[in-house]
Amino acid sequence: MNAPAKPRLAVWKFASCDGCQLSLLDCEDELLAVADGVEIALFPEASSRMLPGPYDVSLVEGSITTAHDRERIQDVRAQSRLLVTIGACATAGGIQALRNLRDVEEWKRIVYARPDWIDSLATSTPIAAHVKVDYELRGCPVSKAQLLELLAALLAGRRPNVATSSVCEECKARGTACVLVAHGTPCLGPVTQAGCGAICPAYDRGCYGCFGPKETPNPAALSEQLLALGMDRAALGRFYRTFNAAAPAFGDEAQRHDPQP
User: Are residues 174 and 247 in the same domain?
Assistant: First the structure.
């Protein structure tokens, strides 16, 4: 009697630094258990073995920044029963979405000796702007624990148990004093989704918002506190424009503090 076929997993890369794929490789012992539960059919970062689709689960890292990317993600979607975006680039356009605020053609002229060789769209956009996405896993990079929970849940056919609360709850859980209240350190923790373990506040630094906006954030209220602490509006706008600059909750709040023409 033949053993039942294992679910087929594919891992895809678009515009990104590969950090989220490395988080998967960093699972080490746990990755062996994952590999035992699925058939890793395509994962170029880890293996030259590349099997054709269809795939049961596709993990997609990176944002859409070229016309070729835009066509390729349609093909990935067509081959995938479930498509999961992993990381700030795939879920919000990534740090490269800062280009959305400027003239990309001017940057190409300044940076490259042959700008006519550069094939690039004017914007960096998340995967969900182009195809249906079944699950999103945030972070820069993603949390190893959340990634394993997501894969285990998909294999078991249940809903992933991934936190949608704020980094503040992680600070309280590990007994870290609030850097914003205790020291007046600017911190995006109250509006940022949990997942990092509040590592920056644990070292007396404010949260940089790597995991993007939490569920129902209130950045306007946080901004009032930061202004009261002496942060000027230009710095406040820059504060929201880092790894998740194009996430609507952060992008809209940053724009609210831009200098008026």
Answer: yes
- Alpha carbons within 13 angstroms on the beta-carbon side of residue 10 total 22
How many Cα neighbours within 13 Å face the side chain of 41? 18
DSSP H stretches of helix in the chain: 19-25, 29-37, 67-79, 88-92, 104-111, 144-156, 167-174, 179-183, 199-202, 219-228, 233-240, 248-256
Contact 15, 69 (CB under 8 A): yes
| Residue in this structure with the two tokens 């109250």, named with its chain if needed | 190
Per-residue pLDDT of 116-152, as tens digits, reads 999 899 999 999 999 999 999 999 999 988 998 998 8
Shared domain for 19 and 108, answered yes or no, is yes
Looking at this protein, which amino acid is placed at residue 78?
A
Token pair 């954030």: residue: 217
* Range of the structural domain that residue 200 is part of: 167-257
Output the domain CATH number for residue 33: 3.40.50.700
Instruction: Judge whether 162 lies within some domain.
Output: no
pLDDT at 261 over 90: no
Is residue 180 domain-shared with residue 105, that is, in the same domain? no
Q: Tally the domains of the chain.
A: 2
Question: Cα(first)–Cα(last) distance of the chain, in Å?
Answer: 73
pLDDT in tens, 184-232: 999 999 999 999 999 999 999 999 999 999 999 999 999 999 999 999 9
